[in-house]
């Protein structure tokens, strides 16, 4: 099981007339393969996994694997709040040559710590794939406590966490206590610099669809302990991040990618709707600096 390190891209799912735009998706993958990212993560929140059917999830997995063709690791978003359904979907994506899955903590039904532990234990025991756990209490309604996560990290194939716990103290304590080979990747784009300087291993960042190579370069500088060079670059780069999350992700991001000519349509599926004209105007003012 490899260690996760660097910038991972939770790639968008482009749509045209409510269908997956496969050609655009393949072109996007070709483009991002050239940027130095460490891996691709289809079907995260940014990939709009909540609005894709299981057939579409399987198709996106197939498409990603064939387009990447072994050139980068692929971790597919497979999660849910019903353990049995997650296991069923897992058997479908396991047919393809992926490295692992990104699996969000069960949401909405608010399980206890023991329930979350058992959920991921079942998933871990059911597969040889690597598993990245996604802790995002503000979306799921439950926080995966460090004690529970560290117990899960004892499983051979639970190799890391996408940390969006929203509490720097919890993140710093986790980084201090994590076992060798277990990776902490931030899922809070604005905390990329902070997490890596505190000993984290990188990030899974929707914002890295834009200025991707610069995210990768900042990570390289931080790894080399060159904070003097990294900080001003990060301060310049990170200015646009709050705008991308001012309305539901990935609607602002898709708007920008469309304006940059990278996707023919910025369509998302309901209940996500297009961004307000006020946010469009603010993003339009930044377009030149985002290419
Ligand atoms: O899809 C993802 O993975 C990400 N989702 C987060 C979110 O929308 O909450 C943001 C992060 O950049 C990546």
UniProtKB/TrEMBL annotation:
<comment type="similarity">
    <text>Belongs to the DapA family.</text>
</comment>
<dbReference type="InterPro" id="IPR002220">
    <property type="entry name" value="DapA-like"/>
</dbReference>
<dbReference type="InterPro" id="IPR005263">
    <property type="entry name" value="DapA"/>
</dbReference>
<keyword id="KW-0028">Amino-acid biosynthesis</keyword>
<dbReference type="InterPro" id="IPR020625">
    <property type="entry name" value="Schiff_base-form_aldolases_AS"/>
</dbReference>
<dbReference type="GO" id="GO:0009089">
    <property type="term" value="P:lysine biosynthetic process via diaminopimelate"/>
</dbReference>
<keyword id="KW-0963">Cytoplasm</keyword>
<comment type="function">
    <text>Catalyzes the condensation of (S)-aspartate-beta-semialdehyde [(S)-ASA] and pyruvate to 4-hydroxy-tetrahydrodipicolinate (HTPA).</text>
</comment>
<protein>
    <recommendedName>
        <fullName>4-hydroxy-tetrahydrodipicolinate synthase</fullName>
        <ecNumber>4.3.3.7</ecNumber>
    </recommendedName>
</protein>
<dbReference type="GO" id="GO:0005829">
    <property type="term" value="C:cytosol"/>
</dbReference>
<dbReference type="Pfam" id="PF00701">
    <property type="entry name" value="DHDPS"/>
</dbReference>
<comment type="subunit">
    <text>Homotetramer; dimer of dimers.</text>
</comment>
<keyword id="KW-0456">Lyase</keyword>
<feature type="active site" description="Schiff-base intermediate with substrate">
    <location>
        <position position="162"/>
    </location>
</feature>
<feature type="active site" description="Proton donor/acceptor">
    <location>
        <position position="134"/>
    </location>
</feature>
<keyword id="KW-0457">Lysine biosynthesis</keyword>
<dbReference type="InterPro" id="IPR013785">
    <property type="entry name" value="Aldolase_TIM"/>
</dbReference>
<keyword id="KW-0704">Schiff base</keyword>
<keyword id="KW-0220">Diaminopimelate biosynthesis</keyword>
<dbReference type="InterPro" id="IPR020624">
    <property type="entry name" value="Schiff_base-form_aldolases_CS"/>
</dbReference>
<dbReference type="GO" id="GO:0008840">
    <property type="term" value="F:4-hydroxy-tetrahydrodipicolinate synthase activity"/>
</dbReference>
<feature type="site" description="Part of a proton relay during catalysis">
    <location>
        <position position="108"/>
    </location>
</feature>
<feature type="binding site">
    <location>
        <position position="46"/>
    </location>
    <ligand>
        <name>pyruvate</name>
    </ligand>
</feature>
<feature type="site" description="Part of a proton relay during catalysis">
    <location>
        <position position="45"/>
    </location>
</feature>
<comment type="pathway">
    <text>Amino-acid biosynthesis; L-lysine biosynthesis via DAP pathway; (S)-tetrahydrodipicolinate from L-aspartate: step 3/4.</text>
</comment>
<dbReference type="GO" id="GO:0019877">
    <property type="term" value="P:diaminopimelate biosynthetic process"/>
</dbReference>
<feature type="binding site">
    <location>
        <position position="204"/>
    </location>
    <ligand>
        <name>pyruvate</name>
    </ligand>
</feature>
């Amino acid at each position: 099981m490899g260690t996760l390190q660097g910038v991972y891209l939770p790639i968008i799912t482009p749509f045209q007339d409510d269908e997956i735009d496969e050609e655009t998706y393949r072109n996007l993958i070709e483009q991002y393969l050239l940027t130095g990212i460490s891996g691709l993560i289809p079907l995260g929140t940014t990939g709009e996994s909540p609005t894709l059917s299981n057939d579409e999830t399987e198709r996106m997995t197939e498409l990603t694997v064939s387009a990447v063709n072994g050139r980068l690791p692929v971790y597919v978003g497979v999660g849910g709040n019903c353990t049995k359904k997650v296991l069923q979907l897992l058997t479908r994506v396991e047919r393809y040559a992926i490295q692992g899955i990104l699996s969000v903590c069960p949401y909405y039904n608010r399980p206890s710590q023991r329930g979350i532990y058992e959920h991921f234990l079942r998933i871990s025991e059911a597969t040889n794939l690597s598993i990245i756990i996604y802790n995002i209490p503000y979306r799921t309604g439950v926080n995966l406590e460090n004690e529970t996560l560290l117990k899960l990290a004892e499983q051979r194939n639970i190799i890391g966490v996408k940390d969006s716990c929203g509490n720097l103290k919890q993140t710093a304590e986790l980084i201090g206590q994590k076992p060798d080979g277990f990776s902490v990747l931030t899922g809070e784009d604005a905390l990329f610099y902070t997490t890596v300087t505190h000993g984290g291993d990188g990030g899974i960042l929707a914002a890295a669809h834009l200025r991707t190579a610069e995210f990768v370069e900042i990570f390289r500088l931080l790894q080399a302990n060159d904070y003097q060079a990294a900080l001003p670059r990060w301060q310049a780069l990170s200015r646009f991040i709050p705008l991308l999350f001012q309305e539901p992700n990935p609607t602002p991001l898709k708007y920008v990618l469309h304006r940059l000519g990278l996707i023919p349509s910025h369509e998302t599926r309901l209940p996500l709707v297009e961004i307000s004209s006020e946010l469009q105007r603010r993003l339009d003012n930044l377009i030149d600096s985002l290419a």
